[in-house]
Each structure stands twice: as structure tokens, then as C-alpha cells.
Amino acid sequence: RTIDRSLALFKGDIVTVHMASQKPWLVWLFMRFAFGVCLRYAHGRFSRTKVITWIPRIVVVNATDATLEIKVAAEEKIKAFPPRCSVPYYFQGMAQRDVCLRLAQEMRGWCWSSTFRMDQVGTFHAKMLDAESARVKLIAVEVKIIGAAYQAIFSDADAIPPFRIENHSLVPMIYHQVGVSSVSEIQPQSTVVYAWDDLKKEQDLLLCVKDMPYSYAHTYDLRRLGSGRPLAYPQDSIIMGPSGLVLGGKADPVDATCPVPLQLTARQAHDSMQLWSWSRGGRLRNKAG
Fold this sequence. Notes:
Blueprint: E1 2-3, E2 14-22, E3 28-41, E4 50-56, E5 58-62, E6 68-72, E7 78-81, E8 85-89, E9 99-103, E10 122-129, E11 136-146, E12 149-156, E13 163-167, E14 173-177, E15 184-186, E16 190-194, E17 205-209, E18 218-220, E19 237-240, E20 245-249, E21 263-266, E22 276-278, E23 284-286
Parallel strand pairs: 5-12
Antiparallel strand pairs: 1-2, 2-3, 3-4, 5-8, 6-7, 6-9, 10-11, 11-12, 13-16, 14-15, 14-17, 17-18, 19-20, 20-21, 22-23
């Protein structure tokens, strides 16, 4: 093992290590790895002596209770990290590349997260989806610099998600990140945790009432606090009677101010789009308030 070029060593330097391995068939394999360099003074009588320490450039800390797997996005080689461990991670070559994350293979069904970097300081969330049960797992990732090393800390984030979506309406909604094809659904009067599907795409959320055309959808910037644009959708004016028949009508698509003609219409008793219903006391109730 030799350093393949001369360097003036300073605290936090990155050095290139050139390693040669001779195989039985006399083929030489050359690999490059990046290491961090820590430079400090010794103590006591050796206080004028500088101590040079080579350390791993990236250290992965798995603070979860599950085994995590990490791989370079363009490669098939997978490295597993057991629970509660701190393990160095090396890229073959000097380039720091995008990686992705998932729960261990023995927990079948989990897909890879979107790609991210372990050499960019900051905090973000990796989102993984179970293709079989549609469950979502959130892992918080914190990348920080300690000396000459990047430390990537992975911890559970299901209890403290970056976003929580609450549907207080009486209709089911669909939502997804703008530019991402994966669509999720939230039922009325329910709550779900949420994190961005793709960390490198636009961070806006598209929201629409289920079964409605996308022309009625709106996008919302979740980085801005406060009230957003009201979400509207076409609604039939319907009154449901005890017999199951309904008295209703549909608004004129051209002129919304035109009077709505009423007519008897067959309708499902438990239709989620139904606004009018009879209460147990025999009173007519508007569920929209």
C-alpha cells in the first residue's frame, strides 16, 4: 500500500491510497480509496511532534433496531449494517456517488429508497415502501463532519416524521410529490405520515379528491406555513331519503349560477360523495356543515 502522489498534509485532507493485489494468475488489480487525515500535536514532552492519523472518510452509524442495506445506485453490490453499529464505508474510487437504502433482505417486500449522498452535510429522510402491504418506513439521515470524516447517522423517524397529513374532510384524497408517479391515498378522518419520495425532485405536494380529474388538483409548497389555496371539486346536490332513493341534481357545467333542476336518482346509500343524509332522529343533515 503506497500513497500514489506527494501531499502536504493538513488537518482534514483527503488522500488517495493506491492498493495493488497480485492474483495467482499474475493479474494486477488497482483500486483507489479515499481516507481522511487528522493532524494534531502530541502531548507532554512530545508536544512539538505532529501526529498524523488516517481515518475512514465515511462512517455509517445505524441507530435503528433493524438491519439496513446500502448500495451505490448504479451497482449491484450491497453492504449490510446490523442494528446499533458504527462501521466505515468506502467507495471504490475517488468519486463520492449516490447511494440508496432499504431494510434488510430478510424483511421481504421493501423497495429501495430514493438516492442521496453521504458526503453532503444536512438532515433529510429516506422513505421506503413495502410493495406487498403498502406500508411506509421512514429513516432520518443526519450527515455531519467530525474531524476529517463524514458521519452518516440513520435513525427511526416513524414517530417523528417530517410531515403528517390529516384528512378532516368527508371524502378520500390522493396525494403525491410533483414529478413522481407513485400515488398514495388517505381516507376521510384519518392521518398518515409523509416524507418526500424523491429528494432530488421538486418538493411540492399535489393534492386531489379521489376519482376527480387532475384539473381540480392543486400543488402546495410544504416549506411555507399557513393556509394554502382552497381545494374545490364538483359536487352533486343530493338528498338521500330513508327508502334509498335520492332527490338531487347536477350543476350546469357552463353556468354554475343556473338553477339546479331536482330529480329522483338511484344512488348508493354509503356513497362517500353524499353530502345530505337522514340522521337517526329522522332529521335531514348536511355532512359538510
